[in-house]
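Q: Got one fold?
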Amino acid sequence: MRIKVAAVIVAGGKGTRFGANVPKQFIKLEGKEIFVRSVEIFHGSPFISHTVLVMNPDWIDKAKEILSCYELDDVVVVSGGETRQLSVLNGLKALEPVKPDIVMIHDAARPLFEKNCIPKIIASVEPEIGVVVTEPAKETLYIVKDGFVEKVPDRSFYWHAKTPQSFFFAEILEAHLHALEQGITNATDDSQLFLRVGKKVKILECGGKNPKITTAQDLAEASCVLKLNKPRSEN
């Protein structure tokens, strides 16, 4: 029997660091809203049966309007919380009636993730073992205290956490609910909560560019990547 996989796309933030007059997820990247590009990665995959978009509550109606323009009306849009952690939990709760086997949690601000990695990630998820897309640290890292370098660690032990982060649905929901019971509401990473309940997380390199768009410079660089990867027939 084929497993059921769902995706939660988190776009609940205000994007204040971007400096625009709309949340950054509504900024257009090569003619298409950032959040739409992220939604389409998963909605357009034959391996994903349900897609949930978690959106800033003030922008839900606008998001639905835009999704409709791209014929994405079946994407479920729910309200984000005060923190990313609470936004993810809202997305997970929206999937409870569906009861997927696996859920992939992705930041809407990473619209360049390559969908051909989805089956590889799904195949890597195991009971009590989540999977996080990562990238090795490529520069020297410093441990600093009071403005002075205290130690230069071996960077081979350090990896940059990215998304999607994927887990068995019931397990990550349990981890989120446990964190809430413990008064934890501002974890920036789902794997943090998964580890707190005694589970394991494995890393997976998927290749390709998968940056998080936070600033105008990030947007410009993402635009360059899309232009370089655009088929010649579209140029």
Notes: Residues 5-234 form a domain with the Spore Coat Polysaccharide Biosynthesis Protein SpsA; Chain A fold (CATH 3.90.550.10). Residues 13 and 82 are 8 Å apart (CA to CA). The mean pLDDT is 92. The longest helix spans residues 216-229.
